[in-house]
Amino acid sequence: MKIIAFIILFTGLIYFSSCSGCSKSGRIKSQNAQTESYNPNTHVRDNLCNGQKITVKMKKENGVYKIPVMINGVLMDFIFDTGAGMISISDLEANFLYKQGKITKDDVVGSEKFQDATGGITEGAVINLKEVSIGGITIHDIQASVTNNVNAPLLLGQSALEKFGTITIDYANSEVIFQ
Q1: Prediction pTM value
Q2: CATH architecture entry for 2-178
């Protein structure tokens, strides 16, 4: 019986370890096909080694594109904003994550001044997000800003996007392709 438990544990460790030669550390290897479409209900994790691609559908709302993003295990729709420097969430989302135990006081890094799209400067908190997942690709320990405006949109900015590697935007099909 102990041998069977060891084999199951060992197999799990191999499956969930990063693949060798992949520069995208911290991601988890999948045994899926070469190209996958993301279903936010399955939460398949993949490290995108060996030329694999993940396709995530965008939704166009009020002139902006949104994609589903898991923040510390909570699914939210973020504006795909290549012009934003950081992931940005409002006080409302931060309080929700705090009440759910998804962020703690230990996740607060400090405060910083931020410039918004109108040129206005506001001060907000900087927090550490333990996990950010898109299309089943998970990155860890990403900084995000928390704005003092409860109506501020959720922005997926460069603090996360640069860690996902090569990203292609297909506006004709409303898709983001990670490779």
Answers
A1: 0.72
A2: Beta Barrel (2.40)
